[in-house]
């Protein structure tokens, strides 16, 4: 159980003071911290979910150049948004961003709401994101509990229960709210998150530079490496797929996925899962035919790529191939539209990660073949 959750007032003041002082000296120069504009805070929080900070900064700067305000997001073509998001994954997020932008323009005068319930009613904004927007953009007293903050409290309090337990999470939420200094929610929440990311790291925490060493019960008890309590990870589901990269008259066939499908509205090479007893080559031929009614031949292995998702490990076998017949009009069964595109033009389209890797491999292979002629 949680040990002595109710910290003495003097101890809370000490922890607050130490973290705020540490943050003043060590805060990273992140672009959305220049003014804490609510739109920018919102985008940074959505981008930052399960993404390393250096990548977030890169994508954020490019996004703001393309879509400087909510109106630009609401009116942008979906494909332009998807292309700007390409590589961050979880593409439903960018669709929710555009839906939310439209609702903010329609119902809130183009301003991100300052009310918790109004925020929670918007697509893609859950309790954590709402609390982050309210505290960081508007400096309102809402605690945030991301993985970094949870880890800091788990070690400072030496929590010996898994944090996902409902009772523990409720108590943790209460502790986070109790520690929040009046009028400084913006700074303190960021200090907690920054401290967890840079010092109280998941592995190899830098205890030698930690300003909270005198208050960290896990350090005193020798349990740092066991806090938070490890949760047994579920074994990932293995998925094996194959796809055909159809080449015809110096062009490549691509098709756009259905809007409500996995990776909805992104572009891809036709393909799907292997069936029992199939080789990857057989699966690629079958899937191409089932999705387009194209008959293909002359399959050549291009590359096999592996991608890890939350619950899945996906192995994708990519093959280049040629049409058996000259007709280039497919019958679409798993896509909304198709294109025959020169290789140089494929970079204008947004692809899932695995297909994008195949595209890079195809580009380098074609360049090498042409240079050898």
What is the gist of this entry?
With 373 residues, this protein is α+β, with helices and mostly antiparallel strands.
Describe this structure in words.
- With 373 residues, this protein is of the alpha+beta class.
- It has 2 domains: 9-226, Hypothetical protein, domain 2 (Endonuclease III, domain 1); 237-372, Nucleoside Triphosphate Pyrophosphohydrolase (Alpha-Beta Complex).
- 44% of the residues lie in helices and 15% in strands.
- Strands 1, 2, 3, 4, 5, 6 and 7 form a 7-stranded mixed sheet that branches.
- The radius of gyration is 25 Å and the shape is elongated.
- 34% of the residues are buried.
- The mean pLDDT is 92.
- Rounded average pLDDT: 92
Strand content: 15-25%
Largest sheet: 7 strands, mixed
The end-to-end distance, rounded to whole angstroms, is: 71 Å
| Element string (H = helix, E = strand) | HHHHHHHHHHHHEEEEHEEEH
CATH class (first level) name of the largest domain: Mainly Alpha
Secondary structure layout:
Layout: H1 9-26, H2 38-47, H3 53-66, H4 70-75, H5 78-85, H6 92-107, H7 116-120, H8 127-137, H9 147-156, H10 166-179, H11 185-198, H12 217-221, E1 237-248, E2 251-257, E3 267-268, E4 271-273, H13 280-292, E5 296-308, E6 312-323, E7 335-342, H14 353-372
Parallel strand pairs: 1-6
Antiparallel strand pairs: 1-2, 1-4, 2-3, 2-7, 5-6
Helix pairs in contact: 1-11, 2-3, 2-8, 8-11, 9-11
What tags apply to this protein structure?
elongated; 7-stranded mixed beta sheet; Nucleoside Triphosphate Pyrophosphohydrolase; Endonuclease III, domain 1; alpha+beta; 14 helices; 373 residues; 2 domains
């Amino acid at each position: 159980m949680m040990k002595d959750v109710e910290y003495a007032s003097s101890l809370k003041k000490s922890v607050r003071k130490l973290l705020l002082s540490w943050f003043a000296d060590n805060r990273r120069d992140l672009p959305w911290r220049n003014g804490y504009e609510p739109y920018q805070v919102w985008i940074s929080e959505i981008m930052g979910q399960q993404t390393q900070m250096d990548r977030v900064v890169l994508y954020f700067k490019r996004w703001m150049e393309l879509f400087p305000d909510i109106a630009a997001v609401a009116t942008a073509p979906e494909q332009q948004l998807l292309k700007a998001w390409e590589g961050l994954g979880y593409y439903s997020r960018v669709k929710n961003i555009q839906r939310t932008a439209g609702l903010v323009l329609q119902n809130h005068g183009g301003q991100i709401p300052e009310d918790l319930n109004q925020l929670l009613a918007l697509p893609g904004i859950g309790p954590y994101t709402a609390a982050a927007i309210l505290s960081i953009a508007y400096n309102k007293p809402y605690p945030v509990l991301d993985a970094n903050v949870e880890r800091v409290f788990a070690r400072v309090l030496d929590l010996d229960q898994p944090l996902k337990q409902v009772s523990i999470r409720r108590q943790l939420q209460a502790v986070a709210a109790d520690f929040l200094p009046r009028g400084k929610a913006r700074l303190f929440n960021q200090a907690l998150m920054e401290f967890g990311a840079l010092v109280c790291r998941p592995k190899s925490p830098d205890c030698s530079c930690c300003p909270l060493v005198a208050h960290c019960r896990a350090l005193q008890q020798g349990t740092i490496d066991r806090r938070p309590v490890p949760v047994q990870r579920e074994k990932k589901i293995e998925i094996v797929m194959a796809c055909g990269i159809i080449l015809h008259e110096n062009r490549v066939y691509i098709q756009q996925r259905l809007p409500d499908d996995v990776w909805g509205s992104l572009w891809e090479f036709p393909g799907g899962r292997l069936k029992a007893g199939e080789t990857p080559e057989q699966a690629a031929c079958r899937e191409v035919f089932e999705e387009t009614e194209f008959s293909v031949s002359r399959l050549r292995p291009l590359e096999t790529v592996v991608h890890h998702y939350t619950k899945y490990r996906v192995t994708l076998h990519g093959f280049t191939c040629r049409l058996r017949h000259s007709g280039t009009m497919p019958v679409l069964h798993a896509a909304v539209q198709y294109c025959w595109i020169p290789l140089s033009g494929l970079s204008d389209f947004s692809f899932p990660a695995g297909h994008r890797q195949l595209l890079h491999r195809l580009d380098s292979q074609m360049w090498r073949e042409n240079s050898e002629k």
